[in-house]
Structure formats: C-alpha cells, structure tokens
Amino acid sequence: MIHQFAVGDQVSLAFGFYDQAAVGLYAVTRLLPSRTDGEPQYRVKGSDDRERVIGEAQIERAGGNRTSTKPARQGSLHNPITETFNRLRLEEKG
User: Fold this and answer.
1) Would the N or C end of the chain have less CB density within 10 A of its end CB?
2) Prediction pTM value
3) How far is CA 58 from CA 11, 27, 39, 61, 77, in A?
4) Is 34 a domain residue?
C-alpha cells in the first residue's frame, strides 16, 4: 500500500484514538515500512517533542480531511484503561 502522507505533513489523531493525552498536531518525520496487513506506518512528532509510531488509519490531515481508504479504528465506548487514567487524573486534582 502506498503512503498517503509525506515527511513534513501536519496530521492529527483520527477520532477514536485511545490515548486522550495524545491530542494535538503532529508532523510526519519518517515513512516506515507497512505492517504485515499492508497498512502504512509513520513516525510522527508532536509539539511537545513526543514521538510515536502510528498507522495510517489512526491519523488524518490536520483539519480533519481523511485520506486513508481504511476506516479509522473505532474506539470502544467502554475502555477500562482510559477510564482508570481519567479517574486517577481527577483524584490527583482533587
């Protein structure tokens, strides 16, 4: 499968991405080999200098224009890990 994004493109996480702390803009820094199922992968870097490897179905062009032919991964309405992190974050503030 061909990569839909290029080095330097600005992307954001697609709706349904599990890591709520990862919201924001990222710049594509490197094109990586595709996964065994053919999905292209990228190395992206956020404004907080945090880097991650992410599949094409999990990102979209900054501004919300999806270019991938694969649907974004659907998040569960009940995610116990996210709920635990949210609860711990609230306890720290309280």
Assistant:
1) C
2) 0.62
3) 10, 14, 10, 11, 17
4) yes
Q: pLDDT of 76-89, one tens digit each?
A: 455 666 777 777 87
Domain span at 80 = 10-93
| Residue 36, φ and ψ in degrees, nearest 5 | -65, -25
Name, in order, each residue with C-beta under 8 angstroms of 30's C-beta and a sequence gap of 6 or more. 7, 42, 43
Decide the pairing of beta strands 10-13 and 25-32: antiparallel
DSSP H helical ranges for 1-94: 80-93
Kindly state the helix (H) or strand (E) to which residue 53 belongs, with its residue range. strand 51-55
Cβ neighbour number for residue 28 with a 10 Å cutoff: 19
Q: Please state, in angstroms and rounded to a whole number, the distance separating the CA atoms of residues 57 and 92.
A: 33
Give the Cβ contact number of residue 30 at 10 Å: 12
